[in-house]
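Supplementary Text 2. Reproducibility record for the structural model of the 498-residue chain.

All settings were left at their defaults, and a single model was retained for analysis rather than an ensemble. We include the record here because the model underlies the residue-level annotations in Supplementary Table 4.
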Amino acid sequence: MHLQLADVHKSFGDNIVLRGVSFSVAPGEVVALVGENGAGKSTLTRVISGAHQPDSGQLLIDGIAVALKDPQSAMAHGIEVIYQEFQQNLFPHLSVAENMYVLDRERRFGRLFVSKQRMARDAEATLRRLGMEMDVHRQVSGLGVAERQMLEIAKAMTHDLRLLILDEPTAALDEQESEQLFAQVNRLRKAGVSVIYISHRLDEVFELSDRVVVLRDGRVTLDAPTAELDPAKVVTAMVGDAVDDFYPKERNARDQVVLEIREAGHETSFEDVDLQVRAGEVVGIGGVVGCGRSELLRALFGLQPLDSGSVRVDGSAVRIGSVQDAIAGRIAYLSPDRQAEGLCMSLSVESNVSLASLRDCSTAGGVVRRGRERAVTGTVISELRVRAASPSIAVGSLSGGNQQKALFAKWVMTRPRVLLLDEPTRGVDVGAKTEIYRIINKLTADGVAVLLVSSDLPELVAMSDRVVVMREGRLVAELTGDDLDEQSILKHALVGAA
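Retained model, structure tokens:
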């Protein structure tokens, strides 16, 4: 498919989202669509997929202007979208084959008596064509995240797929699973399928794409072949100013030991973990998914049991049997999944920020004083630059970066001595990442001890004072100074791994 967007405009009331967007995607071309949260990427995706109609401008397919009145008409032209929340489009209690053909099962396999054998054969043929190995009779509830995403691609291929839009497809995948996804994108490219690839991860953009299109404030600020670009040019087009320092790390480590872990173990995740973190220090934890790093943070916050060992904060023993114990011990934790474990998306910004420190906003009888809540949360919301039209609007209406800053604000309110960060910049744009790094700097300047887990190796190296590497549940290396680089982390993380 040759898709062209010509001077596309879209507004919602007084909110102008797209301001004359023009670019094209050729057959078999992978175009990376990047931009900060709020730049217009989601709205543009919905225009291409027929969920929104443009106020003005044209969409042309193979040179012919088309009106995509709804998602069904877009699908009829071979346009499919796999959103970041793709799992919502799958039926967990149906089989792989049934999910692949759920939209047109009756048309393909019979209205009165559906031929499940033929459905299974067709599903297996589609999976073979994509180089996927998957039991078509298996219930989707038993599939992992990566398998479900591959199923969504296979599901799209059951139609006459000509253009596929992938929205943050690796957000929930590990490195190996991401490589499998990249292989599928390359297969689609060779088959002549056009791909629009939306991602905040610039390393993926440069690895996969043929061309980069940058949106800022609803306008195209860059449209160029990937081979002619570098990350600095892309970031400048995204944020509007030259970015000299992606990672504004400050060195705030002091001599005082704040967090001390001795011989910590969990039956299935990690064992004999000995670690100290000083005041103002950021200690990164490197390793592959499943090495025990995330499980260690969850155990330190009482989300799973710590079967052995001891934890001390500022020299005092902290017995962690629950989340309440961890908070009482002045330990805070940012989950990698802010929607499921960090924030209540339907509650207001201020209610989310006060959630872990309600005693500061309540009467002796436990009644929340809304005026007091607004006063105490307003300061931290302002300091952390959480951008919201009002602190009373639902936190779910904010961009991903502002949701993440609201989550930081929630834990800053508890005045922690230890901050556990698991993928703190996942799913946020470049500008928001820089703001999050500055929040980390502010906390370490105040003497907070930070444990950082990140799959973004440049981030882990740049923002850590030192990095310890976990492999198969054990700490196997400590890297500092000139020894601290991405290659060394990978070498220690992968040696001996299957």
